[in-house]
Amino acid sequence: SVNIITCAEFSFKELLENNNERIKIMNLYVSDYLNFRIDEIAQNLRKTNSEYALAMEKSEELMENIDPIIHSERGITINDGDCLDFQEFFEHELTSTTIMQQELYKQGYLDCVKMLKMLGVLV
Fold it and tell me: How high is the mean pLDDT of the chain?
């Protein structure tokens, strides 16, 4: 005689494990897609938004100055010029991050509306 509850329990556990694997794979696809969209939006901003492009360019230049300080394994000594570089770096990072957040919000809204139209929820 076969214990039907044990068989059902095993099948249910197997189903859950397979479903969890599918969810993990789907999450990877979603994560890859979102990273692609963020990169795409950032590239577009560099082309179309001069304030963003300048802030990113300045941040990258300043990072060359402050990177050795950040990654120093010895005691850190920061002179006035280094302090100004850090301050300017953070100001440019704040500018670019603010612009990027606004654009991501706008694009997320547009993508959501497009998806709802594709699903027939909106006409």
Answer: 86
Taking the CA atoms of 33, 38, 44 and 48 in sequence, report the sign of the dihedral they define.
Answer: positive
Cβ count near 22 (within 10 Å): 10
Q: Which two tokens stand for residue 35?
A: 């990273």
pLDDT in tens, 38-56: 999 999 999 999 999 999 9
CA dist 121 → 11, 32, 108, 112 (Å): 36, 26, 17, 11
Note the maximum CA span of the chain: 84
In 3D space, the residue among 92, 25, 97, 98 whose CA is nearest the CA of residue 59 turns out to be: 92
Q: How far is CA 98 from CA 47, 55, 65, in A?
A: 17, 11, 23
Beta-carbon neighbour count of residue 108 at 10 Å? 13
> What is the helix (H) or strand (E) element at residue 78, kind and residue range?
none
- Asked whether the beta carbons of 57 and 92 are under 8 A apart, the reply is no
Task: Inform me whether the pLDDT recorded for 95 exceeds 90.
Answer: yes
Q: In whole angstroms, give the CA distance from residue 111 to residue 58.
A: 30
- pTM given for the model: 0.70
